[in-house]
Amino acid sequence: MSIFLNKKMLASLTAAALLSAVIFILNNAYSISLRDVQYFNGWVLLTLIVAMLFLTIRKKLVILPFGRTKHWLQLHYYLGLITLVAFLIHTDLRLPNAPAEWVLWLLFCLVAVSGLFGGLVSKVVPKRLEEHDNQISFENLPSLRAQLAEQAEALAMSSLQGGDSRSLAELYVDRLHHFFAAPRNIWAHLRLSDLPLARILGEVDSIQRYLDDTGQARLDEMKSLVKAKNALDFHYAHGSVLKFWLFVHVPQTYAMIVFILVHVAIAYGFSSGIA
């Protein structure tokens, strides 16, 4: 299966490279005709950008038979690579010389970088979540985290009511309450590091010698809650990356479209003598 996917990816990259070469050749042929080649490659660039916007349209029209979203997403990635080539051709590898052009240039660079980052994230994050029970919805994480916090607090209080040592309750107040109150160890989860979890479980195990059999049962239950909370934090960390990427990429894209329209109006306005 992996060999097939590699061959499929190689074929897609080859097609993208060939199409980029065609655009480059046509651009050179157009420049030989003594016409302003910037208009030609500019419209090619705009056409590619509009084509990539069809991914957003496809996501909203889920009831229509336009193919699977996964295939549209892959097409979006490869069109993005071709668009990057068209952008380099259009700018002729030169920096802008006007404020409006600088804004458009920076917006395109931000959209391109965030798009490349999103492509990487969309490949890595789903696989990681699939290995950690992907059935958890990101929107349900706050309520699930609150339930675990309530259970942990109730368990700590029950240790006092049962006449046990104060160790579990003290551990909850000193350490675990902070852990259950909000998402923790985000960066560690993104690095796939289990060190924070091991540290917390070590602190929990450190009071084991002070507890009787009943207290030991409560301690084991607390460890299960800690592991469940850690799993929720793992989903939160990776889900937040996906949310943050879209929050950055999508607004930048629409802002770029607005400046492209302004850029086209200015270009044709000056070329035709319109004030």
Structural commentary:
This protein is mostly helical. The protein folds into 2 domains: 2-134 and 249-272, no CATH class; 138-238, no CATH class. The chain is built from 9 helices and no strands. It has helices at 2-32, 37-60, 69-91, 99-130, 141-161, 167-181, 186-190, 195-205, 213-272. Helix 5 (141-161) runs antiparallel to helix 9. The chain is elongated, with a radius of gyration of 27 Å. The N and C termini lie far apart (60 Å).
Give a brief outline of the structure.
The protein has 275 residues and is mostly helical. It is built from nine helices and no strands. The protein has two domains: 2-134 and 249-272, no CATH class; 138-238, no CATH class.
Question: Any chance you could write out the topology, listing elements then pairs?
Answer:
Layout: H1 2-32, H2 37-60, H3 69-91, H4 99-130, H5 141-161, H6 167-181, H7 186-190, H8 195-205, H9 213-272
Helix pairs in contact: 1-2, 1-3, 2-3, 4-9, 5-6, 5-9, 6-9, 8-9
Summary tags:
275 residues; mainly alpha; 2 domains; 9 helices; elongated
- Number of beta-strand segments: 0
From the alpha carbons, calculate the radius of gyration and give it in angstroms: 27 Å
What is the overall silhouette? elongated
Residues in helix, % = over 70%
- Whole-number total of structural domains: 2
- The whole-number mean of residue pLDDT values reads 84
* Poorly predicted ranges: none
Largest sheet geometry: none
Q: Give the amount of beta strand, in percent.
A: under 5%
Rounded to the nearest angstrom, the distance between the terminal CA atoms is 60 Å
Class from secondary-structure proportions: mainly alpha
